[in-house]
Every structure is written in structure tokens, then in C-alpha cells.
């Protein structure tokens, strides 16, 4: 995205969505460290015997992404399949009935999903299930025959026939389990469907929704936040590099107060909008990371995994908040559920080296307030608009010059149906930089996390309701949005509110949360 101001060209710097992956109301692949990758298995085909049982439900799965061959094949019954640690409620019939739309969506999002293989596996599993049911019927018929009076020789024949049928069923069921595991893994690579208004393409295809304010005109040489922080003794990158490594930092003096003010002010503002405040665990199970659509392991993962365990540090509070209602059925009256979660976030920032990530702009650890909503499917679009409106109100209150973008297909992570990004002007860096995003994930995450709700029945239906028949459940829709990512906000505030004498003015809304402090002034030289 390029912006032209005063005959000078500035380029936007986007923060990668955490982490970007390709996968839907449908989904992606899970794995553990001991799992054998499909990409390592021989490319063989099922023999014509079409094996086994188990009811094939539209089970959702979740995923972690791993390198996936463009033309994986159906495995033979004696091949080893990486068994998913859990399964997601994937609606395979919907995928089949909407094959053209799903195929186009995969293409628009440049996904590695193999739709044809998914459909082949689905058809094979259905046929295998029919074969199992047919053999079971034959076995039941044999069992019924044995209830009557029979000659000893005839009874012995039926016993032998029943034994053979039982062994055949066991073999088919084993094959069906293996086939459904492969089906889960392949289907989990399919990304969420995409809102019809989302533009096709990459960063340059994003559509401008809103432009607020204009760049501040300075009558003195502009400093970037690194120089401001050094002059005002606000942070220390050198000491942090010795203690922890690059892209870590110490906040000092008024910068500490400013971080706490941003957090407290943001939480108080969103609470007025009906959000429940939370603090969250910052270590979660890898499976929960996967169920939210993120990749916990791999060369380019953004996730810090804890060696020797199945746990990870969170990269966003979206993950632990998404897990609060995992495997539960909510009542319709509970919805919407709105949470504002404060947490520390940890990201590897793999592949993000360069001057665009200097200073506080791209770091391994930071504080963030995240909004998260669980709602009925019919309401998710309106709540998406509500989230971006809240973000815009917060940034307008702080006097920032920013723009809101409707992100294109190639900038959507696998869970996102639609995503809006907010980029603020950072004069010291001489560019717009992403400070927030808001995503509608529809039922992509809830199908993996197992979060449903039971619709309330109208009074007329309630009177006729049969005992025990409460009606079918539905998957909730989930949405997430950044209310305040502290380091990026510090960059914006320090650079936009710098003064000629080297001081920085505190925006008025934050002053009550900083003990009334109005200006960060240079320290006296002793």
C-alpha cells in the first residue's frame, strides 16, 4: 500500500497477522512431535478392496500447518497415517455440495489445500461405511438364523460364517479409521470461506475504508522513537540484548507509567462497551493453539514452544480466550459473550529482519489488550463492524492520524472470513504502521474448539416440545480485535507528540491514569 503526501512517497509497513496460515467452516491439520508426516509416506493407492467402518461424521479438526505435497495420494491400508490428536466438526457434505465455491476460495487465498483429494477421500469413506453396514446386516442375518432349530453341520457352517464376517468387519473398521484420519488432515488445510466484499490479491489490493486526520506538521527536525527514548531515558535495548537477546527491551521511568496508563485506559473504555475484563494464562496447550488456527511448530512459526512439553507461549490472548468455552454448549441467552483480555504476548518474528522492524515496532514480547466476541452466526458481521468502530474511537481519542483497510485475500490468515487492519502514521519512521486488526472468523474456530449454543425455542414450540428434545445445537461465531498493542502505541505517541524542546506531551485521555502527568520532560543533567 503506497501513500503520496507532499510529493513524497511513503510505504505502509504491515505487521504480519499472527501467524498467517492457510486453512475453514472447514479446516486444517494437526500434528505432534511423534507424528509421521504424510509428506514422508509412500505415494501408494488403496487396493480395490475398499476397506472399513465407524460413522463418518462431519467432524471438525484443527490444524497445524506443515509442508504439504501438491498431489498427495490416498494411502494403502497397511500404510501409517499421522493420527490427528483431535478432530474438528468439518461439514464434508457442505464442501461437496459447494465444490466450485470452495475451489475458487482456495485459489483466491493461494492455499495449498487439495480439494480433489479431500472429495476422493470423502467418497471412499462413504462407500466403505456402506460396505461395513452391509456386512453387519449379513452378520445379523446369520445370528438370527442361529436362533432356530438347525442341524449340527448347518449350525457349524453358520458359526464359521459369522466368525469370518466379524473378522471382515474388524479389518474394514481399522481401514476406515485410517481413512478418516487422512481425510481430517487433508480437509484441515482448507481455509475459511471469504466474505464476498474482500478484495482479491495481496497487500496492494487492500481497500481503504476510512482515513482519519492528517500528518502533523513539525517546525523542527523529527526524531524517531528510538532517539526520543534514548534522550528521555525511557527504554534500554542494549541491556535487554545482553540479558535476553535481540528484539527485547526494558521500559523505564515514564514509559512504564505510559504502558500501564494505556492498558488501564483501554480496559476501562471497552468495559463501557459491555466487555468483561480478563487476564489469561500465557502458557497454553499446543492443541488449543492449533484449534485457533495457528501453527505451533515449523521453521517459520511465530509461536514459542516449550521443549519437552505440549505447551506454548501465547502470541495473542485470542488463543486462551478462545479456549475458555472449549467443548461446551452455551444457551442462546448467554450470547453475545464479550471479553477484553490483557496478556503478555510472545512471538518469534521469524523472517522479519530489517529496518522496518527497528526498536519497539517489532519485538518478541509485548503487552496487549485483546477484544474477543462469541455470538450467533447471524450477528457476526454487525459485531465485526462494532469492533472496528471501537478501535477507531480509541485511536481517534488519542489524536492519531490513521487509516482503516479492508484486507485482501492473501493477507487473511486461515481462520479469517474478513479482516480490517488499522495503520497509524508514525512520523519518526516516516510511514504508516499497523497498530490493530479486527477479524471475523465465523465458525472456523468454534468447529475446532467445540463451542456450540442451543437456540431458544419459541413459546408455541415450547408447549409442543417432547421431553428430551431440546432442538439441534449450532456453532457460535468468533471475532477478535486488538484494542491496544502497547509497543506500537508507544511508537505512535512518542513520535506524534514530540516537542521541539525534546519533551513529549501526554494525550489528555491518558493523564488521569498517569497521576496527572502532562509532559515527559528531559531529565536534568547532573
Describe this structure in words.
- The protein is an alpha+beta fold.
- 32% of the residues lie in helices and 18% in strands.
- It has an eight-stranded mixed beta sheet.
- It starts with a strand and ends in a 6-residue tail after the last strand.
- Residues 1-71 have low confidence and may be disordered.
SSE diagram, text form:
Blueprint (H helix, E strand, L loop, with lengths): L1 E4 L2 E4 L80 H6 L1 H10 L6 H31 L6 H36 L19 E6 L12 H8 L2 E2 H7 L6 E2 L2 H18 L4 E4 L3 E3 H6 L19 E3 L4 H6 L4 E4 L5 E10 L18 E11 L4 H18 L4 E5 L11 E9 L4 E10 L3 H6 L1 E4 L4 H6 L9 E2 L1 E9 H11 L7 E2 L13 E2 L6
Parallel strand pairs: 6-10, 9-15
Antiparallel strand pairs: 1-2, 3-12, 4-5, 7-8, 10-11, 11-17, 12-13, 13-14, 14-17, 15-16, 18-19
Helix pairs in contact: 3-4, 7-13
Quickly describe the structure:
This protein has 526 residues and is of the alpha+beta class.
The portion of residues assigned to helices is: 25-40%
Q: Please list the strands of the largest sheet in the order they lie side by side.
A: 3-12-13-14-17-11-10-6
- Main sheet characteristics: 8 strands, mixed
User: Between the first and last Cα atoms, what is the distance in angstroms?
Assistant: 47 Å
Number of helices: 13
- Quaternary form: single chain
Please describe the structure with a list of short key phrases separated by commas or semicolons.
single chain, disordered N terminus, alpha+beta, 19 strands, elongated, 8-stranded mixed sheet, 13 helices, 3-stranded mixed sheet, 526 residues
Amino acid at each position: 500500500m503506497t501513500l503520496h503526501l507532499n510529493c513524497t512517497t511513503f510505504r505502509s509497513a504491515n505487521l504480519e497477522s499472527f501467524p498467517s496460515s492457510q486453512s475453514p467452516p472447514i479446516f486444517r491439520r494437526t500434528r505432534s512431535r511423534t507424528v509421521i508426516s504424510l509428506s514422508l509416506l509412500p505415494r501408494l493407492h488403496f487396493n480395490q478392496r475398499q476397506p472399513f467402518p465407524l460413522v463418518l461424521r462431519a467432524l471438525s479438526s484443527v490444524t497445524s500447518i506443515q509442508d504439504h505435497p501438491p498431489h498427495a495420494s490416498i494411502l494403502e491400508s497397511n500404510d501409517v497415517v499421522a493420527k490427528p490428536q483431535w478432530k474438528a466438526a468439518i461439514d464434508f457434505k457442505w464442501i461437496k455440495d459447494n465444490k466450485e465455491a470452495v475451489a475458487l476460495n482456495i485459489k483466491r487465498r493461494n492455499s495449498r489445500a487439495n480439494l480433489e483429494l479431500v472429495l476422493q477421500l470423502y467418497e471412499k469413506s462413504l462407500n466403505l461405511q456402506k460396505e461395513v453396514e452391509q456386512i453387519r446386516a449379513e452378520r445379523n442375518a446369520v445370528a438370527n438364523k442361529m436362533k432356530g432349530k438347525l442341524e449340527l453341520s448347518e449350525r457349524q457352517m453358520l458359526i464359521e460364517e459369522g466368525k469370518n464376517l466379524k473378522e471382515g468387519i474388524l479389518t474394514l473398521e481399522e481401514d476406515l479409521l485410517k481413512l478418516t484420519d487422512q481425510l481430517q488432515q487433508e480437509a484441515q488445510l482448507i481455509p475459511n470461506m471469504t466474505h464476498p466484499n474482500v478484495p482479491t490479491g495481496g497487500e496492494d489490493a487492500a481497500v481503504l475504508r476510512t482515513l482519519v486526520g492528517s500528518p502533523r506538521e513539525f517546525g523542527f527536525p523529527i526524531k524517531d522513537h528510538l532517539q526520543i527514548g534514548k534522550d528521555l531515558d525511557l527504554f534500554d535495548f542494549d541491556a535487554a540484548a545482553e540479558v535476553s537477546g535481540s528484539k527485547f527491551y526494558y521500559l523505564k521511568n515514564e514509559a512504564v507509567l505510559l504502558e500501564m496508563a494505556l492498558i488501564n485506559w483501554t480496559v476501562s473504555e471497552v468495559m463501557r462497551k459491555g466487555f468483561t475484563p480478563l487476564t489469561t494464562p500465557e502458557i497454553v496447550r499446543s492443541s488449543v493453539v492449533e484449534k485457533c488456527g495457528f501453527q505451533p511448530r515449523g521453521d517459520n512459526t511465530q509461536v514459542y514452544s516449550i521443549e519437552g512439553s505440549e505447551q506454548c507461549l501465547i502470541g495473542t490472548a485470542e488463543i486462551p480466550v478462545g479456549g475458555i468455552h472449549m467443548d461446551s454448549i452455551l444457551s442462546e441467552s448467554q450470547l453475545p459473550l464479550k471479553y477484553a483480555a490483557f496478556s503478555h504476548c510472545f512471538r518469534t518474528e521469524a523472517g522479519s529482519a530489517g529496518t522496518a522492524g527497528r526498536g519497539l515496532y517489532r519485538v518478541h514480547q509485548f503487552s496487549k489488550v485483546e477484544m474477543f466476541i462469541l455470538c450467533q452466526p447471524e450477528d457476526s458481521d454487525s459485531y465485526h463492524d462494532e469492533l472496528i468502530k471501537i478501535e477507531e474511537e480509541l485511536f481517534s481519542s488519542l489524536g492519531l492520524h490513521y487509516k482503516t483497510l479492508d484486507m485482501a485475500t492473501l493477507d487473511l490468515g486461515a481462520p479469517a472470513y474478513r479482516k480490517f487492519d488499522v495503520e497509524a502514521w508514525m512520523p519518526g519512521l516516516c510511514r504508516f504502521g499497523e497498530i490493530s486488526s479486527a477479524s471475523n472468523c465465523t465458525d472456523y474456530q468454534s468447529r475446532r474448539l467445540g463451542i456450540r449454543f442451543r437456540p431458544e425455542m419459541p413459546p408455541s414450540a415450547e408447549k409442543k416440545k417432547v421431553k428430551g428434545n431440546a432442538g439441534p445445537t449450532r456453532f457460535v461465531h468468533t471475532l477478535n480485535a486488538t484494542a491496544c498493542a502497547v509497543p506500537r502505541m508507544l511508537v505512535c505517541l512518542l513520535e506524534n507528540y514530540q516537542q521541539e524542546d525534546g519533551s513529549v506531551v501526554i494525550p489528555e485521555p491518558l493523564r488521569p491514569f498517569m497521576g496527572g502527568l502532562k509532559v515527559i520532560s528531559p531529565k536534568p543533567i547532573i
